[in-house]
Every structure is written in structure tokens, then in C-alpha cells.
């Protein structure tokens, strides 16, 4: 599964900022970064960026990259605006191209629903638009507007790392649901419970003791920490100092 995330615009794109100066790209790229990290925990999933921190990548270059890589889905991440001064426009909306397949609409609906539920902001619905990144991509493509930069309350949210993570998680959840993505198995680092069936039988005629050591530390605190962990798993350890 190949996924392209597109953080809209760039740091220095004219006009694309809150009235008090935060570049829209600052929000967009953060959400994309959080989403990429989360998506990398799924099996058989490769994530690409259409954007670049060093410049405002032209729209054609973004869609050409997606088409050349033959990605399966393209998600553009934006913050909305109504004019350039503070006003009351608010909420979440997600866009698809008018003639894109049913799959794009389904994904957009899931992203929209997750964003609204997760953020608690107004549901402005899924809409259609003739945006370049929706029109010129050869795969399922959606564009999410995650709040208004020109609304004081939402602008504050857009500058919050917690809100950015929330938006990323909502988008990732929708992608995982739409494409039935499966998480990679976690590596089991737990200490196994004692299994008496594999322990050697004691030798009745043996003299002395057979000892098993699982750690050696200069700091007693480290030894005590291991003792506590072993006790959780049914062992009866003790500390011996020499």
C-alpha cells in the first residue's frame, strides 16, 4: 500500500498564514509527520511526502510525483481560511474531485467523520472542488481542511501539538479502516513465566547448588528493579552481594 501525504503550501507561501502570523504550512507539515509515523506501524505500507520543507513545491510537481510513484491514495492536508482577517467562519470540511470514483468519496466521508468526532468542531461536510491535486492525480485523492486559520479559537488549536496529533490520528484511522490496514506485530519483550515442564529434575545425589543468574549490577536500585519484574512473572529471586 503506497500512501502520499501532501502538506499544502510552504513556509513562505504568500497569504497562507493566520492573521497573527503562523504559516499554514507549519500546521500542515506537523500533521503529515505525525500521520506518517503512525502509518509506518502498519504492515505493507509505504508513505511518501509530496511536500518539502525547503520550498513550496509546485502543484504539478506534487501530482507528477504521486503519479510516477503509482501511489494508491493521495491525502492533502490543509487549514482553511475565510479572507485574511479574524472572523467567525469555522469547522471541518473534506474535498474530492467531482468525477473521482466512489472510493474517494468513501475515504473522504471517513476522514470527515473522524476529524469532526475527534476535534469537536463544526461538520461542514464532504464537498467537491476542482483543485489541482484532486483533478490531476491518477488515484484516489482527498483534501482535508482541518479548521479555520481566520477563526481565533481554531487558530489557537492549529498551533497546538495536541490538536495536530488528533488530526493526524483521525486521518490515519480513516485510511486504516478504508484499506483494512493491519498493524505490524509487536515484539514480545516480556520475561516468560516459569514453565516447570522444561526445568531439569533435581539430582537426588548431587552435592551443592546449581545457581542461575539473570543480572549483575553496580547499582542496587537496578538490581531491585529486576527483582520486582521477575516476581511479577512468578519467580522467587533474591539479591546476593559479593
Automatic annotation (TrEMBL):
One Pfam short name: Amidase_3
GO MF, one example: N-acetylmuramoyl-L-alanine amidase activity
Keyword Iron tagged: no
PROSITE patterns registered for this protein in UniProt: SPOR
One annotated Gene Ontology cellular component of this protein: outer membrane-bounded periplasmic space
Domain SPOR: from-to ranges: 204-242
Protein name: N-acetylmuramoyl-L-alanine amidase
